[in-house]
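Lab notebook, bench 4. We co-purified these components, and the gel suggests they stay together. Before we commit to crystallization screens, I want a quick structural picture of the whole thing.
Request: model the full complex, all chains together.
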Amino acid sequence: MAYKPQYGPGTSIVAENRRKQMNPGQKLEKVRSVTDEDIVLILGHRAPGSAYPSAHPPLAEQQEPDCPMRKIVKPTEGAQAGDRVRYIQFADSMFNAPSQPYQRTYTEMYRFRGIDPGTLSGRQIVECRERDLEKYSKELIETEMFDPALVGIRGATVHGHSLRLAEDGMMFDMLQRNVLGEDGIVKYVKNQIGEPLDRAVAVGKPMDQKWLKAHTTIYHSLVGTAYRDDTEYVEYVQRIHSLRTKYGFMPKEE
Amino acid sequence: MAKIERSQKLFLKALKEKFQGQDVESETAEFYKFNGVRQSPRKMEFMKASRAVEMDRGVSMYDPERCHLGGIPMGQRQLMTYEVSNTGVFVEGDDLHFVNNAAMQQMWDDIRRTVIVGMDLAHQTLQKRLGKEVTPETINEYLHILNHAMPGGAVVQEHMVETHPGLVDDCYVKVFTGDQELADDLEPQFVLDVEKLFPAKQAEALSAAVGKSLWQAIHIPTTVSRTCDGGTTSRWSAMQIGMSFIAAYRMCAGEAAVADLSYAAKHAGVIQMASHLPARRARGPNEPGGIMFGVFSDIIQANRKYPNDPAKASLEVVGAGTMLFDQIWLGSYMSGGVGFTQYATAAYTDNILDEFTYYGMDYAKDKYKVDWKNPSPGDKVKPTQEIVNDLATEVTLNAMEQYEQYPTMMEDHFGGSQRAGVIAAASGLTTSITTGNSNAGLNAWYLSMLLHKDGWSRLGFFGYDLQDQCGSANSLSMVSDRGLMGELRGPNYPNYAMNVGHQGEYAAIVGSSHYGRGDAFCYSPLVKVCFADPSLKFDFAEPRREFAKGAIREFMPAGERSLIIPAR
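Here is the predicted assembly.
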């Protein structure tokens, strides 16, 4: 029987959202549109319209060794072209931002190919070939995994995920890469590493609290769903821990 | 698990002081209006000092307004002060970097410059091999000579250079024994009197463990161990011990028996505070990476002073341990710079870990009827997996909820590693104190980490992926190369060797299992007695208070050089 992933335990809306984001069989809801050029501007790795710098010649132009793995694994578009490996990094507010660091990593591992994610408490990075990155970034920004106010695209100086929100509802960013305009639309005025952009890039209106609470993947007893209330989830973690503890003794099956 | 009511919030006073005029439960705040680093008196002081240095040396230095992110200085949000937990003293974060804090430096100096050396082997050599008489009078005479020689006074030889007593005033030797009759016969100035220094029950246990043996608690000069290293301590001490025996017992300087005395002082009779480390982390003995957690919990003396508050005793170990293992060991010996400090300070500032831990105490009392204020092995709960899971889960969930209910506290512990260390520490301490079993406490730590990671979908920095997500499997195992009793683990234990935010807490989890039982010591009765010494520069019964004194510049350290440098 083929393995069927369950994408984690839990009976709460948070657990449900986690499973939905991870499950590549479920289409993520598109919430906003950001042009390809604007994605390139936010990422800050190359000028829009410029050629992709390459780390090696296209695979078709170089002698590939006779390797069975290379025959099995189809290279991504970026790998095929010999693109550099570049990154996008997100900071997610703990006040109900729709995705969160480990959740992003799990989701990306299920949905994307040829990636190298890294997970910390205040940021989550995913690295991959540049043209693959631009495609993945578009999905990560345009869908329900993103909120213009509570998710920051930040290469460095990422601090903000655990802080109180600014009075306009924006997550703190000491570089103020993205600002809430008087028209209610959030605009990036600096790229993810903090270099000023020639023109502002709009990423849409912040989602309201009701939407955030219904779409978030973090437990939060004050503004969202209490972890304690999802007993199935807590008991599942206890079970994992107990089994790991037991198998530290390397018990023999009878 | 079932939440219990606890109206006292130990962290509230600190939060209100830190965020003056603000609602500490509010989810919003003002940013970008604090004038950057200029909001901090300490950073202003740094800038002024730097200008003076630059004028003097002609090379640029501290320039936070230009160097930080090309002109955006830190301080776009409020730069908070911190209360050193349980002291009422508020300090700036900078004051808790060990470079800026003389008490922190002295705590480590006092450990590194200490060895314990047995006298029994030497006395046997003198009595059996040389036929010399050893009496309380000869021991007193020897100790008088040794306290001349140990700081750097010459004996036996002519025309020797010596050290200035004013530079080495922190160096001395005292002795201790479990034989009260012998202790009473020795000059009080030289004796660590177990009966006077410890509560009666602890004194009885320590005296029985030490027995009739006589031990020297030796502290070489701070200046020496700083100029050299921890490996010097036993060598410096052994040289002066050998010379003092020759002088006190009128021995021939070159006779073969001297080799026996030297061997005893250098090897056979020496208790180092830390073992040496393997080549990839090469350090000699008496350096932080080699201190076993059981030994560290004996070095810290809070359970001697507060025998009826195992939580406080453990929290003092957390403070001291995070300072030594995170700030000094991992933060400077093994890494460098300034980033490690705030991993550590989270565990000993603003009474946050204190509150989480006392919640655990209340829970253990409420659910398991553990009278934690009267520590005894009698009411400890059997550490089944079910009970460990229950304690760790409840303490972890409560701590997470507190961070959620008080957004300013979340902002205080702004990094996931800070929160992870503190929450898991409270879980581990609660479980250790409740069960009296250090490995059960460690196991609780790891469940806490897993719960935390899944609840908030984040934990600490990359390093937490390593030990905290595989720790469940090694926390109770004793299989060689996979597990070890908590008391025998240390900063160089395989999975523990590279992670900030863990080792001080582990040490406290180990200690708390003994404090919860009312034990007199965790691993070594000798170390426990040695650091009970009121003459030490650093008070090991009150590490957090000492750090606070250091932060407000009221701690007087040893090893100062003002006697031999131009007046400023």
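The CA atoms of residues 197 and 532 of chain B lie 7 Å apart. Worth comparing against the SEC data before the next meeting. The longest strand of chain B covers residues 172-177.
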